[in-house]
Structure formats: C-alpha cells, structure tokens
Write a structure and sequence with these properties.
The chain is mainly α and 456 residues long. The protein has one domain.
Length: 456
C-alpha cells in the first residue's frame, strides 16, 4: 500500500479546516449558478415567455442530472475516507472507477433525454406559447450531460481529497467565457446566427465541454492528488457495490428533490405564464442565496469523511456541530438581507413587468426567513453523507419535499383563499419540519455508530 502524507483536515483547528474547504466550494458554486443567472439575465430581455420556457425546462434537467449525480457524491465520500486512511492506491482506483461509471451513465442519459424532450415538456404542462422554446432548450442542454457529469465527478473527487481550488479556477474561466458566448448565440452576431432561447444552452454546452476536458487532463496527469488510469476503468463488482450502496440513496435523494421541483412547477403552470416567470426568478435567486448552505454541506461531507477514515469520530461530530451553527446564523442573516431587497432583485431580471416583479418578490419575502433552517438541513445531510449513511439524507429529503412541501402547496393553493401564494408558503413550512427532523436524528447519534461499523 502506498501511503499519502498526513493532511491538515484530520488535525488542528476545525474552524480553519472548515473555512479553507467551504469558502472555495461556495465560490465555485456561486460561479456555477452564474450560468443560470447569466442565462436568465439575457433571456429576460426577450420577454417573460423566454424566462418561463427555461423555467419549465430546468426542473426536468435537474431531475435527469440528479439520477447520475448521486454517484459523484459516492466518489467524494470514498476518496475522503481513503484520504483520511492515507491509502493513495485506493484513492486512485476508486477515482478511476467513478469516472468510468459516470461516463457510461451520462451517455445513456444524454441520448434518452434528447429524444424524450417533446413528451417531457408536454407532461410538465408547457403551453403553446413556450412549448417550442422549452423543447429546443432542453434538447441542446441534454447534449451537454456527458461534459457536465465528467466535470462534476472531477470536482467531487478533488473536494473529497481537499483540493478545492482547482475546480474554482476552471469554473471561473468557463463562466467568464459563458458571459461572452451567451449574448452571441442568443442574439447572433455577424456570421453566427441567433438561436434565441436555445442559444443559451449552446453557450453552456461549449463551456461545459471545455471544463470537462480540463478536468480529465488533470486527473490523467496525476499531479493534483489523484491519478486515474484507463486500466482501472472496468466493472469491478466489489467497488460497484460499494459505490451503489453510497450513491443510490444520494441519487434517490436528489431525484426526489428534482421530482418535487417538477411537481411544484406543474402546480405553478396552472396559474399562468406570469406566475411561472415569477416562480422561475424567485427560485433562481433563492438557489443563488442558499449556495453557502450547500458549500458548508459539501465541506462537512469531506471533513467528516476524512476524519472517519482516520477513525476520529469525535472530531467528525465537532465538525458537524460547528458547521451547523455557522449555517443557521449565517443564512438567517442572509435571509434578512434578501427580505429587504426582494423587489430590486426581482426587477433586475425582468425590469418591465410589474406583476412578475410583485409576485417574485413576495415569493422571496416568504421564503427568506427560513434560510437558516434550510442551512441546518443541508449541513446535517452533509454530515450523514460523510459518515457513509446516505440513506438518512434521502429520507429527510423525501420528508421535506414529498410528505410536507408538495401536498401542502397543493392544498394551500387550490383549497384556500391564498391561491398561488400557498405555493410560496409551503417552502418555509417544509424547511422548518425537515430541519427539526434532521437535528433530532443527528442528536440521537446513530450516524456515529453507523460510521464506526462502516469503517470496520
């Protein structure tokens, strides 16, 4: 066995380890979300229908991506624990296996999604005014699944070993490139024709291809903590089983979250294109704001995983407690800011539609006070994932979305005087219940016993 050098994430001050991991991850996630925000900014100049078309496509895209992205989490957990155990051979082999599996899955999903674009948009309720744009955007986006998945697994593997800066540099480069390509392909210039709504997807696929190529080059080169090899890319039953046991619950978690988003959009579409646009703007702003929670959750997964790999269960628990406090108080403060500036933020994306601005701002104001609770749920899910107990995260997500949020949104919007505002209210209520459930389960301590058994 080839051993690695000791690493700083299993010793020293936890706050230093957490910050050094979380900040680059948060910044990288902000940059990745900038893809959507840049698209929304330029498409908003085409009108509310253009934004609505992409808003309808996004939940289905997220659903397809989530089916395979759970395996990228398995890659993070495995390499984090092998890093903590200082086993470089298993880090490299597990990484090679993860890249191989993601490549196969992404190809299958890309082909299936492309040919299913029309029926999927029909199922989700795309009206005749936005159907064609929704289908074209989804088809082009599906072609980029292979590139997107390959970069996701590269990013997950790097995060698992604590090398979080490389993905940041790559994402920064591609986002800056997307900033130029977006208006170029949406509106056209010179010999390049304008593709309208689909142009935003064309720009994204080009930049995703570049990021995937750079990530694979770094992994094959082997100078950044992981070296993958083609000879290790085959169906290894033992590794496949372990990856499946970790990744399948994570895939189910993210898939149910995406399905929940899709079902919410189906409810929203029944109130008309303006409400769809308001929901799309609000959802994108909210997804941008909760990135600190996701960043802390991913950093917590890596730190907990590495400390469990090093058999430091107590330190893993201390990581979770500190991250939990930062998420709750930090995101509650961000929620207050978002509450105050809800209308200017909404108006930034669709400046000439007062009704959409009003409805989108109301969505943000209702949701914002629960940001801290959302942070608690995300961080604790990250803790359970790092311990290899991905089933706990799956169950909490199912509780939040399917047992609470979707039924509540349906009841409040269709059976009370709230109307579409009932959809908005289902978000903070479900965040509260899920946070209580996650915190209670964390304090019960079963995840620590599960982690000990998992390592032995």
């Amino acid at each position: 066995m080839k051993a690695t050098k000791g690493n700083k994430y299993t010793e020293g001050k936890i706050i230093n380890s957490l910050v050094s991991l979380a900040l680059p991850i948060i910044f990288a996630n902000i940059l990745q979300t900038a893809y959507q925000l840049i698209d929304t900014f330029w498409l908003g100049r085409l009108g509310a229908n253009a934004v609505a078309a992409v808003s309808l496509s996004f939940p289905i895209l997220f659903l397809v991506l989530s089916i395979g992205s759970g395996l990228t989490l398995a890659g993070t957990v495995l390499v984090a624990q092998y890093k903590g155990a200082e086993n470089q051979n298993l880090i490299d082999f597990s990484s090679s296996q993860s890249v191989f599996l993601i490549l196969i899955i992404s190809i299958l999903l890309a082909v299936g999604s492309y040919f299913a674009a029309g029926p999927l948009m029909t199922i989700i309720g795309a009206g005749p005014d936005i159907y064609d744009d929704s289908v074209s955007y989804f088809k082009v986006s599906s072609l980029g699944f292979v590139f997107l998945f390959l970069f996701f697994i590269f990013q997950s593997l790097m995060r698992g070993i604590g090398n979080v800066m490389l993905p940041v540099y790559i994402v920064l480069f591609t986002v800056l490139l997307n900033l130029v390509l977006d208006p170029l392909f949406i509106y056209g210039y010179g010999p390049i024709p304008g593709y309208g709504v689909a142009g935003a997807a064309v720009a994204s696929v080009i930049t995703q291809g570049l990021s995937a190529a750079i990530g694979l080059y770094i992994l094959f080169r082997g100078k950044s903590g992981i070296k993958i090899d083609v000879s290790s890319m085959y169906f290894d039953v033992a590794n496949l089983k372990r990856t499946f046991n970790l990744g399948f619950p994570a895939s189910i978690e993210q898939s149910t979250r995406a399905l929940g988003m899709t079902m919410m959009v189906i409810i929203v579409t029944s109130f008309g294109s303006e409400i769809v646009a308001a929901y799309g703007i609000g959802a994108r702003i909210l997804s941008f704001i909760i990135i600190p929670a996701l960043g802390l959750a991913i950093a917590t997964t890596s730190l907990v995983g590495q400390n469990i790999g090093a058999r430091k269960i107590k330190r893993a628990e201390e990581v979770a407690n500190l991250s939990n406090k930062i998420a709750f108080f930090g995101l509650t403060g961000i929620g207050v800011i978002m509450f105050i500036f809800a209308e200017p933020l909404t108006a930034f994306f669709i400046p000439n539609d007062p009704e959409v601005i009003r409805d989108g701002a109301l969505f943000i104001k209702i949701m914002a006070p629960s940001f801290g609770l959302l942070g608690v749920m995300q961080v604790l899910n990250g803790t359970f994932n790092g311990a290899g107990f991905t089933k706990a995260s799956m169950l909490i997500s199912i509780l939040s979305l399917w047992i609470v949020r979707f039924p509540l949104a349906y009841i409040l919007s269709y059976n009370t005087s709230l109307g579409y505002e009932g959809i908005w209210w289902s978000f903070p209520i479900s965040n509260l219940i899920a946070a209580i459930a996650a915190f209670t389960y964390f304090k019960m301590g079963y995840w620590k016993i599960r982690a000990f058994k998992y390592r032995n």
